[in-house]
Design brief:
By secondary structure, the chain is α/β, with parallel strands linked by helices. It contains 7 helices and 13 strands. Strands 1, 2, 3, 4, 6, 7, 8, 9, 10, 11 and 12 form an 11-stranded mixed β-sheet that branches. A two-stranded antiparallel ribbon has the order 5-13.
């Protein structure tokens, strides 16, 4: 059974200033999403499911629906603020959905096979897709709670133009994830990498392994997410900015010994867009990959 690619594309790009999911960055007008789908096709994925919001649905489908439909199956699912368990009310000040954990959960009815979940605005490289696909296709019926992720060095994932959110990872000698700690405000300052947490400044190892939200799961994750999301929403419904992060859920599952996560490494280069100022560097990085023959000048 071929794995599925789940692309989390419902974010509104508040720090970017526009709908970065459809920003043309490649030499023939390609978006980062185009490169992710292209790499997934090369790695043997059979379907791509997009998590989007109703407010961008028409524009998003206009750009992507017919672009690669002859290369891979394409489907869509909506992530909305009101995708919450029945009987739950939430803060009227809330303006956006509940984070990456909810984004994966809303795709439950679309996915019945092993899958990877990635951000729409991160460029991961084909090696990451190949590594995850190879791992997921080896999982047997007895290993349904064994997941994977692609890890990157923290120093290679920072932005010059502002803070970023990263999941800081610790692994055991067999490269299984032991803990993942979500840090929501990381920046390089004075030659050091600092996480700003409330009134505390925490210095981080620049070589630390981090999650860039490239996760490999089996469908068993959906039952866990459903349970964890209800508990989260009951506790945080009145907090207008609370986020249901997938690394937090993964960490809880590991600590409860309900799942294992193999940390895979990629020789490819990660890059992504958080701020508008990141754009030019991404354009240059893609152009270099095209010039060196890693991608054709026109993908589709």
């Amino acid at each position: 059974m071929k794995p599925t690619l789940l692309i989390l594309a419902a974010g509104m790009g508040s720090r970017y200033g526009s709908l970065k999911q459809i920003d043309q960055l490649g030499p023939s007008g390609e978006t980062i999403i185009d490169y992710s789908v292209y790499d997934a096709v090369r790695a043997g994925f059979g379907k791509v499911v997009f998590v989007i919001r109703r407010s961008i649905e028409e524009e998003f489908k206009e750009v992507f629906l017919n672009r690669f439909g002859d290369k891979i199956k394409v489907d869509f699912v909506l992530q909305e603020l009101d995708n919450v368990p029945e009987g739950i009310s939430y803060s009227k000040e809330r303006v956006k959905p509940w984070g990456t954990g909810q984004a994966i959960l809303v795709a439950a009815e679309k996915i019945n096979e092993p899958f990877i979940a990635i951000n729409a605005d991160d460029f991961y490289g084909v090696e990451a897709f190949k590594a995850a696909a190879a791992y997921l296709t080896r999982i047997s019926d007895l290993e349904q709670n064994e997941y994977c992720m692609i890890g990157y060095q923290l120093k290679n994932t920072l932005s010059e133009f502002g803070s970023v959110s990263r999941g800081i990872c610790e692994t055991d000698p067999e490269q299984f994830l032991q803990t993942v700690t979500e840090r929501t405000s990381i920046r390089e300052t004075g030659g050091k990498v600092i996480a700003e947490e409330k009134d505390e400044h925490i210095e981080l190892d620049p070589d630390a392994l981090v999650s860039m939200n490239f996760w490999g799961f089996t469908p068993t994750i959906f039952d866990f997410l459903k349970e964890k999301f209800r508990a989260f929403i009951e506790q945080h419904a009145n907090q207008p900015k609370a986020e249901f992060y997938i690394p937090v859920v993964v960490n809880e599952l590991i600590q409860a010994e309900q799942a294992r996560v193999k940390v895979l490494t990629s020789t490819g280069k990660w890059f992504g867009i958080t701020y508008k100022e990141d754009r030019e560097k991404v354009v240059q990085a893609i152009a270099h990959q095209v010039e060196t023959g890693q991608y054709p000048e026109k993908l589709w």
